[in-house]
Amino acid sequence: MVFKLINKVNRLKRQNDALKRKLEGGYRNTRSTDKQLSLQDIAVINKYFAIDTNTANKNKKIDVVENMLGKKDQEFFQNAVIFFKSKGGSDCRKLIFNCMIAAITNEVANQYSFTGRKAPRKSFKDLRLCTCLYQAVKLAFPNANDDDIKDGINA
User: What does pTM read for this prediction?
Assistant: First the structure.
């Protein structure tokens, strides 16, 4: 009984020490893509998403967004990855679901299948948006495999 109590106390002490290191800045396992988006970056992202078929907003067209995601400086692409990662989800599928809601409307989604084999649909996997969503999921869930991500997008 005393032995179990001592083990629990030692485990709590280790956890407490780890939390102290994190709070004091001793935790250095952060990635450069873990940056927070500024309000200006979020405003730019929101200007282009969710992609819609409505002709009133020309910025929210798939070809405009694809062009923005393909620019050479990659800043918009990286900000979009961080934006989609921030949508959150308790697992890979839930994150993809939340990202898809933020990325495209149902009308646009109905124009695509993952591989594009279902006539008259286009291939979603060939879009830069798919690559962006893929990287957001891999950033949030590094152990997620390609099949999990593909199944999440297909759902």
Answer: 0.70
DSSP letter for 20, please.
H
Q: Are residues 8 and 73 in the same domain?
A: no
Q: How far apart are CA 31 and CA 86, in angstroms?
A: 15
Q: Which residues pair with 123 in a beta bridge?
A: 113
Rounded distance between C-alpha atoms, residue 80 and residue 148, angstroms: 21
Total domains in the chain come to 2
Q: Would you say 123 and 115 are in contact if contact means Cβ atoms under 8 Å apart?
A: yes
For 55, phi then psi, to 5°, come to: -80, -10
Share the mean pLDDT of the chain: 81
User: Are 118 and 144 within one domain?
Assistant: yes
